Amino acid sequence: ISQCLIRLHNENSLYRGAKNMALTLMTSNFIFFYALQVIQKSLTSLHNNHDSNPAHQRQRRHQMSKSLTSLLASTLAGVVNVLLTNPMWVASLRIMESKTMRKNCNVSKKKQRRQRSNHP
Questions:
Q1: How many angstroms from the chain centroid is the CA of residue 15?
Q2: What are the counts of helices (DSSP H) followed by strands (DSSP E) for the chain?
Q3: Mean model confidence pLDDT for the chain
Q4: Model pTM?
Q5: Which of these, 88, 48, 86, lies nearest to 66 by C-alpha position?
Q6: For the segment 35-56, what is each residue's pLDDT rounded down to a tens digit?
Q7: Cα–Cα distance for residue pair 62/48, rounded to 1 Å
Q8: Inter-residue contact 47 to 65 (CB < 8 Å)
Q9: What stretches of the chain show up as alpha helix (H) in DSSP?
Q10: Spatial contact of 15 and 7, defined as CB atoms under 8 Å apart
Q11: Rounded to an integer, what distance in angstroms lies between the CA atom of residue 27 and that of residue 43?
Q12: Under DSSP, is residue 54 helix (H, G, I), strand (E, B) or coil?
């Protein structure tokens, strides 16, 4: 499969836009994990401030609330991540698409010129 792709496209086109994608992916991961840590800390401190139950009930609730807190925090961090990095993903994909379109347009123009020169 890889040899077929290399024959269809030159080797450079296989990695076109990889820098932009890597930068966008790193930024997206940073934002997600930073938001996750901030949200988990704030939810944990909010939960600890409102906990006034006896010790055994508190321990049981703590186990259940820890997983719910983690689920809620990761969901909110994902929402923050998507809202902040969506423009970067769109721009990155458009850059890749425009490079591909320019290359295809140049290739098709060259083919048209060859066809015109071959026909009398």
A1: 17
A2: 4, 0
A3: 79
A4: 0.65
A5: 48
A6: 999 999 998 888 777 656 566 5
A7: 9
A8: yes
A9: 2-8, 11-14, 18-49, 55-118
A10: no
A11: 24
A12: coil
